[in-house]
Amino acid sequence: MIQAFFTGVNSLSNDDADGEVTSPINNINWGPGANESNCAIPVLVPGSFRNFKILREAAPGSGKSVTYTLRKNGVNTTFAITIADLATTGENLGSSEAFAVGDKVSLICNYTNTPTAGSVKIYIEFVNSENHTDSFYGSMNNGSANNGEFNGVFNGGEDWNAFASGVLSLCPINGTLLGTSFVIENPPGAGNSATLTIVKNLVDQDGTGGTPDTRATISGAVATAGSSTYSLPIAAGDILYTKVTYVGPIGRNITAGYKFRATTPFEFAICGVYQNQTSGTQFEQVQGVTSSTIGAESTVNTISGSTKIRLGKFYARLSAVPGGGASRTIKLRKNTADAGQIITFGEAENLIKSDLSTFFDLQNTDLVCTGFTSTGAPALSNMSWGIQAFDPSGIVSIPIRSKIGAVRVR
Questions:
Q1: What pTM was computed for the model?
Q2: 390 CB-near residues (< 8 Å, 6+ apart)
Q3: What does 191-204 look like in DSSP terms, one character per residue?
Q4: According to the CATH classification, is domain 136-262 in 2.60.120?
Q5: Domain boundaries in the chain?
Q6: Tell me: the pLDDT tens digits for 43-70?
Q7: Residue 346 DSSP class
Q8: What is the CATH T-level fold of the domain 267-394, as seen in this structure?
Q9: Which fold has domain 2-132?
Q10: Can you tell me the distance from the alpha carbon of 217 to that of 199, in angstroms, rounded to the nearest whole number?
Q11: Which residues pair with 75 in a beta bridge?
């Protein structure tokens, strides 16, 4: 199964120094190489990365270049892209890099002759070698995660957050969560522990009250990784997030990966959150969590790759009603035009709404983002959305065979 990641867009995500690192599957700012523990996501499904593409907001400059290299377990692979001179786009379509369960994936940039810093847009695909229905997602943090904080499952952002409504994932498809793997920068210490728990529809999935036990724990003075396997059914429209809890004085960088099996083969989820949405017309990327200022459409548009990816069923949710006769509208945008999926929240509405009737394809030079408009002066709100995505070439009809009696010819 092909899972596509449309990411890397953030108004602050300049690759402004040699050797900076980031995540290729979640939007996060670039940071010094020492921050790799912030963004290296553990992989829970075996497969290969391929069809890697990067668009820079600024060209490196004459005689200058930037090389972007996929890293496995903190070591450079041979899977890389170089953007040089006056070019702004680079792609690697002819090679791939295999990852096994437990490997950690990150991305590094390296400079030649101090190029102009630029915000980047990243597209990359992961091809699952296990079966046709498994996907992996991840959470990370840009600094130490604190006890009792939260992050997304399908759209894990750059920070663990004190408010779940600012990071929650709104799942657009049916399926089953099957596992969690997480890594902590340093061991918790003797007598201390860190635990990750999945929360579904505001209920901790910790083995009590009929829930499956999704908890993964790291404890003691040696271990830095923990995992759990479980079976947690998910229906389209469910809200999910993960929370971290500590025993003892711990404040560490934490990254996590999650395994999800879609009920319908070839489907995967693209989810996003914008925190503290204001009034007016705004735009945001389709994947990840953004807490900083929303960018112009030209900045937040994410890029497509050589594989045709179809986007369809669209779900959205507000954390607060618009109120006072105001309204909020969220829509999907393709190539700076409305793509058809539109959801409007009236003054007293904030619970999950959907648009399930429109589909559109992305490929090659296509750009995609979300767009927000409002009427009146709606209350400050977090907005979460989920989009069904799939590779239409993988869905084939199954021929019906009929058995016709043989005719004997004498």
A1: 0.91
A2: 264, 266, 267, 268, 309, 310, 312
A3: EEEEEEEEEETTEE
A4: yes
A5: 2-132, 136-262, 267-394
A6: 999 999 999 999 998 999 999 999 999 9
A7: -
A8: Jelly Rolls (2.60.120)
A9: Jelly Rolls (2.60.120)
A10: 15
A11: 72
